[in-house]
Design goal:
4-stranded antiparallel β-sheet; alpha/beta; 252 residues; Alpha-Beta Plaits; elongated; homodimer
Chain lengths: 252, 252
């Protein structure tokens, strides 16, 4: 799959010290990656950075230039370490202002819960100018989109709701990416040469080889991925023929 | 914690299409992050990139310049999509040659297993010049270090063995990073203002606020992190006093 021919390219920017200190195992990457794959969007790069203004601003600018869509997660809550909105404003030279729609959402939400909409919570309605809000059906405080950057919550449940309910319906479906895999209980060195030749003959698809090593299960998963389903099926046929001849058992 | 005063800074470069397609949930980030934290090393950034030469070379050069240590995972196996060694050689202007020590390791390993050391497997002994090998007690094929870049396997079991058995003993212990946390069953908006003041008064430590939202468990974990244990304890005391006064229950 040639990179430069694609237009539905994606990057993710994960913002949060908790991931980098090892306290939290990130799951947002895998969720967005899986959704992008199903939607025909091609995730090209992920960065994880600290709650550090300079680092966030630099990453926002770089990724926004390099890819068609950027999804950020984390840093849009009410506390002092939530600095994503401020960084997005600086990165794209916007002002950070009290967004009327967002303000209304918070007023209604906290009124219903009989909780005070204090100064800290009000911060969640301070959003860069000319941003489009992203709906949060879980806890109201919205995400937002500036240029090609979609700014999402870090809490998985909220991030997932934003993505599934508001973002996906807005994304044009990309060209479908097909993916199939074959599993063998042999080390990848046994089939490396054949796979290399196969990849050379099928340049328009990606053939990936992924060893697994969890004794007694030792083996290799071979993944075929690309826009051309016919090429994938043909390549798989050739591999299966080879495996049969070499007396290597496989699971499709 | 000021960034520029630190010398034990770390970045991770995760190489592999399988993470970006969502097929595989990465666990290497969390493992290395946790070890770095325990060793007093400060993980500043993580990037995940495709099996793409240009992207890998660019990331290697950038991260190697910005941080004291870079750990890469993935792409050092025997198949056509394993291109990390080649990229490291190009990035740091070294030649990729058959490393005698690595060759010997492979000869012995495959002889013991009565498996053919074929041309594909031999690729795992092709390593940039002037590299230092990293021991692999699981499957022999070594990792290696070039400049400040430690090149590790992607299979978690192998990566972990390399890290624990060979790399950790070589790392000078950094200044111990202390970390303590308090959990409350209240949304973070309830304590955001107090935390902000607390952070302003304790600038040498990091105070992080992490909401969790898995009904019926909704609440906030507050994490105190830094080199000064005394400051952490003092800040925690003040928080607990505040929570008691505000009648918010907490778990230390």
């Amino acid at each position: 799959m040639k990179v430069n021919k694609e237009f539905n390219t994606v990057a993710i920017l994960i913002i949060g010290n908790e991931i980098l200190s090892g306290k939290t195992q990130d799951t947002n990457l895998n969720f967005i990656a899986t959704r992008c794959n199903d939607l025909g969007y091609s995730l090209k790069e992920v960065r994880v950075v600290r709650d550090d203004k300079k680092q966030i601003i630099k990453s926002l600018r770089e990724l926004s230039k390099m890819y068609n869509n950027v999804f950020t997660t984390g840093g849009i809550g009410p506390t002092h370490d939530d600095i994503t909105a401020e960084c997005v404003a600086i990165a794209f030279k916007r002002k950070l202002v009290l967004n009327k729609k967002a303000h209304k959402l918070l007023i209604d939400h906290y009124k219903n819960l009989d909780i005070e909409l204090n100064e800290s919570r009000l911060k969640m309605a301070k959003i860069p100018t000319k941003a489009k809000l992203i709906k949060n059906s879980v806890s109201s405080a919205p995400g937002f989109k500036v240029k090609n950057v979609w700014v999402l919550a870090g809490v998985p449940k909220i991030m997932q709701a934003m993505f599934l309910e508001d973002i996906e319906p807005q994304l044009n479906k990309g060209k479908k990416i097909f993916s199939k895999s074959i599993k063998i209980l042999k080390p990848e060195g046994d089939i490396a040469e054949f796979l290399s030749t196969l990849q050379s003959n099928y340049k328009k698809i990606d053939i990936g080889s992924y060893p697994f090593y969890t004794p007694p299960n030792i083996g290799t998963t071979i993944i075929f991925r690309g826009y051309e389903n016919k090429s994938i099926n043909n390549a798989i046929k050739l591999l299966c023929k080879y495996l049969t001849k070499a007396k290597i058992q496989f699971l499709e």
